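This protein record is not my work; I was only asked to verify it. Would you go through it and say whether the fold makes sense for this chain? Here is the record exactly as it was handed to me.
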Amino acid sequence: MELKIIPISSITCGERFRLDYGDINSLIESIKKEGIIQPLAVKQTSPDTYHLLAGGRRFQACTKASITDIPVRIYPETITPLEMRSIELMENICRKDLTWEESINLKNEINELQIEIHGRKKSTAVDAEGWSERDTAELLGMSNTSVSADINLANALKVFPELKKATNKNEAMKMLRKLQVDVIQEEISKRLMEKRARTPIEQQLLDLSNRYIVKDFFEGIREVPDHSIDLVEMDPPYGIALQDVKKHDNIDIQLHTQYNEVPAEEYLVFMSRVIRECYRVMSENSWLIVWYAMEPWAETIYHLINNAGFHTRRLPGIWVKGEGQLQCMQPNIYLASGFEPFFYATKGRPTIVKQGRSNVFHFKPVQNQYKCHPTERPVELTQEILSVFGWEGARVLVPFLGSGNTLLSASNLGMQAFGFDLVNEYKASYIVRVHEGRPGQYKSYGGGSNEVPF
């Protein structure tokens, strides 16, 4: 290797590692003032021409700064393509402006390149021939655990391109863990559904699993006969950009990316259709429960319910979550909300089962680490609500199943419930929960009091 100053015009660029060098104006100004501090790496291709091996960003900045001569490290013409690529990658790994995706892909490529040069190490012995991830970690001066995790994530990007939606590496790691759990749960649920029911309990589990129908609501509701449903528990999309509202929650981003939100501009028509379809299938003396976002949809949902033929009033049922479970998009000007409301409406003249009960329901939310759906409500809460308005044997429709917890609540109460959702992953998680529990005894809380302490 030789250190030399050569004309920049004698250097040619091949395929570069980085596709976009971003804003290099600050580098141009630095080069104009201080010159090139770190020489570029080149390979001599003839007495007067060179091929750039590393330093593409500096080369581009020098070209734009009209620099005519530039310091370089010259590698011999005999250098192999793999060695050339290795030099380039090793220089790029030290950059501070790499995105998280570029960084992990770079480490993965360095590892694969070294394996291609030296062969894959087949033994853990210190003097074993070949190359391993541990060798890559030593080469980069990093821990083996860190490099191994980055290489795994880089390979996962090829299988799960949705990981690219993550804003940083830690978020991508969380998404990957959730995806891996989803894959496992989907396989478990598939095997559970294929298992032949041999006992009454197994038949109950299979029946309860089949009540979660993966289908668009408007498609599925066509098959439901008129006047056949006694109670509808509706937790529709809120039309409020859920990812923005819950972006500070410690919930895996993958839960949000799977969630099917309805754009605000389409929400009025969407909810009008849903509510009218529910009215059609409900019996003459039945209850409708509709969760909604107080801001900005309270008045809209109120009128949609009454215009469809139901009767309700503006005083809703209230789920109080307790301290530590608050949400606020603009905490600088608004107080955080610790409750969610639901309208309860009648078709005909049904009566409340638990007459005299307060309209306030104090229940702790499901802890984020145990959620399989971003808007999941505890079984204990939905069970209490169903018991206020429904009865044993009641036919319950859940238009938007989500976690499926309402089906479990209805099962505990001896009600016959079914519903729809669009996401197979949510159903897979639900089936696993069905088989992990026992009919009539499903719950979200591990023990102790369900009520929020005041």
Remarks:
- The longest strand covers residues 282-291.
- The CA atoms of residues 36 and 328 lie 49 Å apart.
